[in-house]
């Protein structure tokens, strides 16, 4: 892992762009480059150009949120969930980040020949249970099987549709100077759990993925008032990449307060051991909310009253920028450092 | 290929059900078994249980069609299209088979590390061009990259949403004795083209995939009148598997007239050479319509007036059955044979 884990401090040479690299799936700089250079010039639809986690489209007068995600996590089963729970939660979260009430999911499986049938049954049960618990229906699906060696056990692509209530208007280009940046809980739990499984790490405490469906937390927040600019779940590329995306799309600076960042001791320890920065490690059940400063305290209280937001904190502030979009972090020593997007491929196959 | 190509006459031993086999992705008997034994008991939503190519769900009062399909075709590029055109057309067709007007698509890519960037650009251009031509928007997407050896170039999962007009009610359980079975054109073009590419076959004529978006053909038919029971596009598993599914869901018998089946000489020749039955070979731009006999002639005329239905024919009739659902075929010699579902895996990675 050492070559990959420090990828963010050692970017891929600019010249090598003739093939797709692992880093193109990192959620960081190379992913953004792929979107900018290959996808956006071809796919010119305005809903896609908005670069949110979901498209919001009109269907017969209703505002419908529509999203898709492929899941290639390795291993398939891990403490706190499996590829099935991850797929359902991830897709629900992408809908919820647009303020939508998640309604229906589709599930497409690409299975490598030879997958144990019991593994498939277990994942299918997880898919259904996590959908049921979240109150959404899995209504359509597809299965393909590829030859042994042409896949890797199981890949799942879930898509989802949801309904955006009237008056809700969330987008990564709506952040304004003064906005508070709220985070619903600890950073890096999912990424470090997966990495721990893969590398056979032993943790002192019990580490588990934070995989969870965030739509009820979002609904609670939206019920409180209108000052919300943007919700995001910081998955691939971590909090750093998510905030960089928001900063870029809104044309603002975001300053984080390092002392406020909630990070478990086990995650901090594993990150130190592996040379990782928890700001870049994936989360699968955390919400970042950018909110009008007048609403910040109430929003924080509302988060803390929800089971998935008990450790919510205000981690930063949006600022005006004269030098272009940027994310910085004030350290406990009083210095400030730049928090760039993830470069390279820190943790492949994390979701 | 010989072991696989005669799979349908040599079913997989019943005992071996502990792992997923290539045949589970065939669209035939093993696929149906997987759906019946693994998916349906877990995913209990009524929209899924209807076993159509799409779910029709209510969103804020509107009837919305929702569908998903993964594409793992090999090779990625072939005469008549590529994995991108196939994905767009396939998803549009799944919406259209429910009578829906296709509106929006999502595209999720699972890329194997090392895919030439030019191949990716070419597929992305195909995705966009075929969507544009069909008048649908690609509005959201996702990209994952897996390590070399953990995938096979590129897999694409497209999902789609569409709007079902009032009064349209198509479903595979609506076939009734007396209904006419109409087919919009020749059988097996897609499957034989892919197989030809893979096996390096040379054809006398120019063979190309029939990959096409069928939604305007469906719209023309629906504009003619209300006698339509069910539309299907006979992809994996071919016409035989599609008709067996309809027979099972409607509890009817279907009799085909072999003399009427439109099959290109090149396809017939390749099938003979390889021991394949064109009834089981995949199509990607053909429509099967089950229709009230009083409407059959008008429907056939309407098909023939559309560029994608010029060779449309009536290929069979729905009959009552006392012995349970069955598909049979009257041969030119006056005999009748049973046309079973595809068993095993005739042509893996065909779509």
Largest interface: A-B, 80 and 80 residues
Structural class of chain A: alpha+beta
Per DSSP, what share of the residues of chain A sits in E-state strands of 2 or more residues? 15-25%
Q: Tell me roughly what share of residues is in helical segments of chain A.
A: 25-40%
CATH class bucket of the largest domain in chain A? Alpha Beta
Anisotropy-based shape of chain A: globular
Return the average pLDDT of chain A rounded to an integer.
Answer: 93
The order of strands across the largest sheet of chain A is 9-11-8-12-10-13-14
**What is the rounded distance between the termini of chain A?**
17 Å
What fold name stands as the CATH topology of the largest domain in chain A? Phosphoribosyl-aminoimidazole Synthetase, Chain A, domain 2
Per DSSP, the total helix count of chain A is: 10
Low-confidence stretches of chain A: 1-15
The counted number of beta strands of chain A is 14
For the sheet with most strands of chain A, the description reads:
7 strands, mixed
What is the subunit arrangement here?
homodimer
- Tally of domains of chain A: 2
Say which CATH homologous superfamily of the largest domain in chain A is assigned: PurM-like C-terminal domain
- Compute the gyration radius of chain A: what is it? 19 Å
Q: What CATH architecture of the largest domain in chain A do you see?
A: Alpha-Beta Complex
Helix-strand topology string of chain A: HHHEEEEHEHEEEHHEHEHEHEEE
Question: What does this protein structure show overall?
Answer:
The structure is a homodimer. With about 350 residues, chain A is an alpha+beta fold. Chain A folds into two domains: about 50-165, 60s Ribosomal Protein L30, Chain: A (2-Layer Sandwich), CATH 3.30.1330; about 180-340, Alpha-Beta Complex (Phosphoribosyl-aminoimidazole Synthetase, Chain A, domain 2). Chain A is about 30% helix and about 25% strand. Chain A has ten helices and 14 strands. Chain A has a seven-stranded mixed sheet with strand order 9-11-8-12-10-13-14, with helices on both faces. A five-stranded mixed sheet of chain A has the order 1-2-7-5-6, with helices on one face. In chain A, strand 13 (about 325-330) and strand 14 form a beta hairpin. The longest helix of chain A has 18 residues, at about 115-135. The two termini of chain A are about 15 Å apart. The interface between A and B is large, with 80 and 80 residues.
């Amino acid at each position: 892992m050492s070559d990959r884990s420090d990828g963010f401090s050692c970017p891929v040479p600019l010249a090598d762009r003739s093939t797709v690299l692992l880093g193109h799936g990192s959620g960081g700089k190379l992913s953004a480059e792929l979107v900018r250079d290959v996808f956006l010039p071809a796919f010119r639809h305005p809903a896609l150009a908005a670069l949110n986690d979901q498209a919001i489209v009109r269907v017969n007068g209703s505002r419908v949120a529509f999203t898709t995600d492929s899941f290639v996590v390795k291993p398939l089963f891990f403490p706190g969930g499996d590829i099935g729970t991850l797929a359902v939660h991830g897709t629900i979260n992408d809908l919820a980040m647009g303020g939508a009430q998640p309604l229906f999911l589709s599930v497409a499986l690409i299975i490598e020949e030879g997958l144990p049938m019991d593994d498939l049954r277990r994942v299918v049960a997880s898919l259904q249970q996590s959908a049921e618990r979240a109150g959404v229906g899995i209504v359509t699906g597809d299965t393909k099987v590829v030859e042994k060696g042409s896949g890797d056990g199981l890949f799942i692509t879930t898509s989802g549709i949801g309904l955006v209530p009237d008056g809700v208007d969330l987008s990564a280009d709506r952040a304004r100077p003064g906005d508070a940046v709220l985070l619903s809980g600890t950073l890096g739990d999912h990424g470090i759990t997966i990495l721990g499984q893969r590398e056979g790490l032993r943790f002192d405490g019990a580490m588990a993925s934070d995989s969870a469906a965030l739509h009820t937390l979002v609904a609670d927040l939206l019920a409180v008032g209108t000052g919300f600019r943007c919700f995001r779940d910081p998955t691939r590329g971590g909090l750093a990449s998510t905030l960089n995306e928001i900063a870029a799309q809104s044309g603002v600076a975001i300053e984080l307060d390092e002392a406020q960042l909630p990070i478990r001791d086990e995650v901090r320890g594993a990150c130190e051991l592996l040379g990782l920065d928890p700001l870049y490690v994936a989360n699968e059940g955390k919400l970042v909310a950018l909110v009008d400063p007048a609403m910040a305290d109430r929003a924080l209280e509302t988060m803390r009253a929800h089971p998935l937001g008990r450790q919510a904190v205000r981690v930063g502030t949006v600022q005006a920028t004269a030098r272009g979009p940027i994310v910085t972090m004030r350290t406990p020593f009083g210095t400030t450092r730049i928090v760039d997007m993830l470069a390279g491929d820190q943790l492949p196959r994390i979701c």
